[in-house]
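Lab notebook, bench 4. Still working through the backlog of constructs that have no structural model yet. Next entry is a single chain of 183 residues. Request: give me the structure tokens for it.
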Amino acid sequence: MKKFFEIIDLIVGTINQTMAVLGLSLGVLLAFINVILRYAFDMSLTWAAELTNYLFIWAALFGAAYGFKQGAHISVSLIIEKFSPEITKAFLIFANLLSIAYLGLISYFGYELILLLQDFGEMSVDLGIPLWIPHLVLPISFALAAYRCAEKLVEIYLTDAKDIKLYNEHEAVIHEIKSQGEK
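Model written out:
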């Protein structure tokens, strides 16, 4: 069973990283090409702005889903780090359950939006593609983020309360300064 989750972890991580990098890279490249065309050749790609927006949105949402795996999201640990390890663990479990519920709901409503857009047959203005295609990012990226939160929840649940360490930006800065001072 552990091997199965390692494979799923690899697949989810690859999807998140690839979509974030491709979305950002292609969005920047397309915006650059369109600016060059506009100012150097007095022409532009009429559909480039819309596609660039979609690419950046996809990059941001898949990047956010990847951030859950890396623990790169802002967390407020100032209050809970003052409590006993058992209470801290309970708060972290609750926070992850709440995050999973929120992300799951957004994913579900994103799916409902896709169905609605398909029913209405809405088309994008400049690209001329069905509008549900660029909106696929909502159910997919939020479902992947919910999966990452579920992974973190299991990790916290299986870790003994006294072994749970809270890492925040402040501690990382202090650790970095100490490391540079030792060199």
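Notes after review: Confidence is low (pLDDT under 50) at residues 168-175. The chain has five helices and no strands. Flag for follow-up if needed.
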